[in-house]
Design brief:
With 173 residues, the chain is α/β, with parallel strands linked by helices. Helix content is 29%, strand content 21%. It has a single domain, classed as Rossmann fold (3-Layer(aba) Sandwich), CATH 3.40.50.
Length: 173
């Protein structure tokens, strides 16, 4: 069964600098969520806690998920403290208990939490699809966001994941 994993779509990601394609990415993620719910496919959310004083401090305003893609009752939100959604979170057990053997992954940040989670899911035997227009990042000191995304997708494609446009991800009933 295919589940949707939404990674770190939190207020802190949309602070001072808007991520590359920011609002369009949010729209694509929202469409994935709507279609997953309509097909009764499970939606799982990851939320990063960076610790006291961090922009993602669980007690601060940056920790909150964006309201336009917030979970509804019954959808699982897992807090993580590292880049991998699987590291010491119990996510693998949760997915397996729900009968999930494939994941559609979206969210932020491409080269950090999304990449690490894609590779970790692959290592655990999940069939991974990345919605290639539903993840993003910000410019770094070395590279523009578009280059980071293109490079990371090149590494994933056919190795760790299949790439599909959000509109082409199919959640079967």
């Amino acid at each position: 069964m295919l589940g949707l994993l939404v990674i770190d779509m939190q207020q802190a990601m949309f602070g001072a600098a808007e991520p590359y394609g920011g609002r369009a990415v949010v729209t694509h993620i929202a469409s994935l969520i709507v279609r997953a719910r309509a097909a009764m496919a499970p939606v799982f959310y990851m939320q990063h806690d960076g610790g006291p004083g961090d922009a993602f401090d669980k007690n601060g305003p940056g920790f909150a998920l964006l309201p336009e893609i917030a979970p509804v009752e019954g959808e699982r939100v897992t807090v993580k403290t590292r880049t991998s959604a699987f590291y010491e979170t119990g996510l693998d057990l949760t997915l397996r208990a729900a009968g999930i053997d494939a994941l559609a992954i979206c969210g932020m940040q491409t080269e950090y939490c999304v990449d690490t989670t894609v590779r970790s899911a692959f290592e655990r035997g999940y069939r991974v699809t990345v919605a290639c227009d539903a993840h993003t990042t910000c410019d770094s000191a070395l590279l523009p966001a578009a280059t980071i995304i293109a490079h990371t997708q090149h590494l994933w494609n056919g190795r760790f994941a299949r790439l599909k446009l959000a509109q082409d991800v199919v959640f079967a009933r």
